[in-house]
Batch of 3 targets.
Target 1
Amino acid sequence: MYKEKQLLTNFLSEKNLRHSSKRNTILKAFLKEEGHITAEELHKKVNEEDPSIGIATIYRNLKLFHDAGLARMSRFEKGEAHYEHNYLHTHHDHLICLKCGKIIEFKNPEIEETQEKIAGKHKFKITSHRLELYGTCSKCSSK
Amino acid sequence: MYKEKQLLTNFLSEKNLRHSSKRNTILKAFLKEEGHITAEELHKKVNEEDPSIGIATIYRNLKLFHDAGLARMSRFEKGEAHYEHNYLHTHHDHLICLKCGKIIEFKNPEIEETQEKIAGKHKFKITSHRLELYGTCSKCSSK
DNA sequence: TTAGTTGCAAATCGTTTGCATCAAG
DNA sequence: CTTGATGCAAACGATTTGCAACTAA
């Protein structure tokens, strides 16, 4: 948590932006989340703490957290964006069950290596990536 | 092209759906495309041939092509969906330049193997995947 | 006091849908 | 004829934005 707060503080002062109590409430709720969360979902959680915070502010702050480097954004097959933070959450990829919607996270260094090889071949400098495996999870395939 | 048309014909008769001249126009324009295309872009191309075709029909047919197995859909970081066909286009992944927007396609069997290993570990049955590497292409990094 | 932050509602963007009409089989 | 295909405009869901009021520094 300390590292994330620091990251945000740095970003804010660098860009001449401000802290605010609502921004803090949103950050706290966001960092409390373990997995992915949509703006809508985060809005609900935040509203348990402070019902005066509107959805627009959630979007504005998620964008800010993203720009500050403490949130990642992904879009799966459906429409809405999912956000997740980096606190206790280094990079990983996703297995997504198309039947029940379950999302499993995994890490695999082999894949990262192979990616570097590929990038080298195309003289490409990788800054980030996403790998998503779609299919059926064990529960759903045994049904 | 023959294979794709056949695929569509099979799908149509299986589902008791019909051919139509507009559907053909859309299919032809779609198969002519080499890379990814958005619904909007395809609409423009189709309209050069037949300006009476509306965007809703483009969406309806892209969905149909997708269900019939002759189109793939992906969403990159931004909102809109991109479609691509399987004619001369077997599965591949993408390198995406964040500066100029260039999209390079690549194939890598090693990665596919590793994916299967990961899926096995989680008793997951993979039906599809997406791998996107974001970064800077050679041109943009030399500027 | 100056500029960033927020709520609200309206606007926007990509996509889907209801309905009346048209056309394939 | 029967039912799928289509155009149009309205509806939609997610996200963004303009504006006036608010608040951090």
Target 2
Amino acid sequence: MNKSTWVYGGVMGVLLIVLQSLNYRTLIKDISLEVYGGIIAILFLAVGIWLGSVLIKRVNEGTLFSFVKSKEVGLSNREAEVLQLMTEGLSNQEIADRLFVSMNTIKTHTSNIYVKLHVKRRTQAVQKASELQLIHTLSKN
Amino acid sequence: MNKSTWVYGGVMGVLLIVLQSLNYRTLIKDISLEVYGGIIAILFLAVGIWLGSVLIKRVNEGTLFSFVKSKEVGLSNREAEVLQLMTEGLSNQEIADRLFVSMNTIKTHTSNIYVKLHVKRRTQAVQKASELQLIHTLSKN
DNA sequence: AGTATCCTCATACTTTTGGGTGAATTGATA
DNA sequence: TATCAATTCACCCAAAAGTATGAGGATACT
């Protein structure tokens, strides 16, 4: 909501500048109408491409964990929590420390997660979580 | 290379149509130059936004591995290849079989990858690869 | 010719992960 | 109350991953 305002303002600013430059066009007679139209086209095409890419990028942003979607897959709250930390690259021991439980507990959770996600390995679980859009840790920067 | 041609052709087609329409402009005298410029601007802004989103989507599509970006991080060709398969959830043995080398070789590669990516574990490497947009395995669907 | 980088492989050892089984506790639910 | 799902934990064993070190061959660049 915040950035959109800036984008909108920027686009409007560029639009104003271009429209303003139309006044100066009468001074420059040697520029044909076709060239003039082409310049505007290219200019706004560039702005549009940039805008489009920015908008799409913002969709992919964020590190939200969709517990709702996790439920749909069949994961319990705790399992979703563990999966979240797993995708952040933490080891079982680190996850255990983070959640104040033993590593054995985490192992149990991870095993159950693998079964529910139909995967064999940790990296595949991370992969699956991304595919199912359970997490959105990409394009953070 | 293939789709880019189509995109290029499409853009050029639209450009031609717009430029062609300039001939008809002389017939419509009541449209001011400002309005004319605005129409072109909006039109190409729309095309640009669409183009931008499509281009970004295509970047995120598939399982392309950006060897160019990998080089920037300092990864060798082989290391990039291994990282690619790693992110697909393959084990070291599976990667070894896929590349027709021994598992020891893969272990060497993975260790070097971890050093270059400044990570400790496999999942973190996958994470890092996503963050750095070395791979684009998301939004497959 | 010498240097550097990459790719390859081995050996040995440690750590992490995964699989299987069993079990105690809690809270909600039929 | 009986049952079920979720959470917790333990023990054991096997597989996979990771670390350290050394080393040979290929290619490319100085």
Target 3
Amino acid sequence: MGRAPCCDKASVKKGHWSPEEDKQLKEYIEKHGHGGNWITLPRRAGRLNRCGKSCRLRWLNYLKPNIKHGCFSGDEDWIIANLYASIGSRWSVIASHLPGRTDNDIKNYWNTKLKKKFSGLIVAQAPRRARRKPAANCTGGFPPSLDEASPVLLPLPITEPQILFPLPSQYGNFDLTVPDLVGTSSINTDDQNPSGCTTVDHPESYSYTGDAAAAAAAALLQFNMEEYGAAVWSSVEAMYLQ
DNA sequence: AACAATTGCAACCGCCATGTT
DNA sequence: AAACATGGCGGTTGCAATTGT
């Protein structure tokens, strides 16, 4: 019954990887793949005195081709912040929206920089869901099934720009106008419908209020309206981070 | 220049879901 | 069906680098 333990934790090397170890692991995986079994990989790769889990982590977070390190763009910042507000600290899911970024990188980036940058802006964080459960389906009808008071953006793909979010009241009301891009009408927290959501069917015809502006900016970026989203974001940033 | 404090991030730890025996 | 291994994930730690005094 069962299998042998994955490795002898007392004898395997820990800590930072040397260039030689990196080379050995990279060359082996590029030549043979990981074979679906990380535990036996160190043995198969030769004298790699590392735990299989450590090999997996090193490959996925550092050695794997096409991984981007550092220099997150403003767009990436917003996508991360928005997804964090929507789904909480499900870093692997967030990473799946940012090609080339790893969950570990995003987690570190959030914890060291973005958390401060967006402090006060991300006010309602979704509770952690049970792992490996499918995410709540927000695509069917309106209002979507909101668990707790977490902001929700409709997942892509989507045909019509529509933004759903609760409007936190603790920041009070203020109007955000994006010059030359949108009109001047605004959404106030009074506009909430009974479900706690506000619907914006045609965001290009509105300016936004409070966190709605933040949600709008992130959503617009997701709708590939980069220029507009970036403009909204700049205004939000100027307001919050001055 | 020396030391302390802070920051950034790679890597480890432990938990949980799933797969295997 | 039960017991265990494995893969995957998020939280946390430890240390090197950087910044401040």
